[in-house]
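STRUCTURE:
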């Protein structure tokens, strides 16, 4: 039902509806959402503990994986507890400052996750296509610079977005038709001209999604070209399986996020719960599956976990450069067993 919106109304508290049109199913929807959140907490926390405890895992790939785990913990924790509060206890109220903080964390850490995925794709490219120089190219200072540059990019891109929303007058009714404070959903409450904020959000999201996806696709194209040159059929199958699982989880991050944004902007005739569910999926599924795909399927992580659990001191030295650092298996120059 449409609501009248008086102008120049200052709002200090907003109300999130959860998933519009599916409020009667909130309790059922909360079950998979809660399970994914618990998996994300357990998986990413375990991954961080194992990598920290085992010196043999203090290599570029696992440093990037640690960054991804921290980002996933922050991103999922930014939205899921409040979302479950809405589903279970009808706790829809959220202060404007808390809403803007949630908005900033969600969007900034989404940009950071995209940047780390690019860095991890580059790490695998170097390890496979230039294995003998792997540790000389991706030194600890270089990894730190990549991490700081990724953080700076997210701050530079997302700070203007939040400040722009903060200075806009918001009108009642203070109801956000979403399960969290998504930028475009909050922007619908604006009384003033929100064209710049809308365009800026769309441009930044399109740029980050398209540019980062292109870099990832380029890296994996070069990786697959190197894999196809291998003589061992078993090695090719193993490499294709690993790369395929990585690309699938990346697609679950990029595709639903971009679709939900464009649907919010250009397909407002679609049921609102479709857009909200897509936005939820891209923030909940990757944090839950990343530690499974990048952790459990990586031999070094499993070996490190066994060493930590059994309280054994890690073996002296570490793994050498090359494909062993990518989780695709050991390497002799450019071969995969």
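SEQUENCE:
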């Amino acid at each position: 039902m449409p609501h009248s919106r008086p102008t120049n109304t200052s709002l200090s508290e907003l109300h999130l509806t959860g998933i519009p049109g599916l409020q009667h199913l909130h309790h059922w929807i909360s079950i998979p959402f809660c399970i994914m959140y618990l998996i994300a907490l357990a998986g990413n926390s375990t991954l961080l503990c194992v990598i920290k405890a085992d010196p043999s895992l203090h290599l570029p790939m696992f440093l990037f994986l640690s960054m991804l785990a921290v980002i996933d913990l922050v991103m999922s924790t930014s939205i899921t507890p409040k979302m479950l509060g809405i589903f279970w206890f009808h706790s829809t109220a959220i202060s404007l400052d808390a809403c803007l903080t949630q908005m900033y964390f969600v969007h900034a850490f989404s940009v950071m996750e995209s940047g780390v995925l690019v860095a991890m794709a580059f790490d695998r490219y170097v390890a496979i296509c230039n294995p003998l120089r792997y540790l000389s190219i991706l030194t600890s200072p270089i990894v730190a610079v990549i991490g700081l540059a990724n953080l700076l990019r997210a701050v530079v891109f997302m700070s203007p977005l939040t400040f722009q929303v903060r200075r806009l007058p918001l009108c009642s009714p203070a109801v956000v038709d979403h399960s969290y404070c998504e930028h475009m959903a909050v922007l619908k409450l604006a009384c003033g001209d929100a064209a710049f904020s809308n365009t800026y959000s769309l441009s930044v999201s399109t740029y980050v999604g398209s540019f980062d996806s292109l870099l990832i696709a380029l890296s994996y194209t070069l990786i697959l070209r190197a894999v196809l040159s291998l003589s061992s059929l078993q090695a090719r199958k193993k490499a294709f399986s690993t790369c395929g699982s990585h690309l699938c989880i990346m697609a679950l991050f990029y595709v639903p996020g971009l679709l939900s944004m464009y649907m919010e902007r250009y397909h407002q005739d679609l049921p609102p719960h479709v857009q909200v569910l897509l936005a939820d999926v891209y923030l909940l599924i990757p944090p839950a599956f990343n530690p499974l795909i990048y952790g459990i399927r990586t031999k070094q992580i499993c070996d490190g976990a066994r060493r930590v659990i059994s309280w054994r001191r890690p073996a002296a030295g570490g793994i050498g450069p090359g494909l062993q650092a990518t989780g695709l298996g050991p390497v002799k120059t450019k071969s995969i067993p």
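REMARK: The first strand starts at residue 13 and ends at 16.
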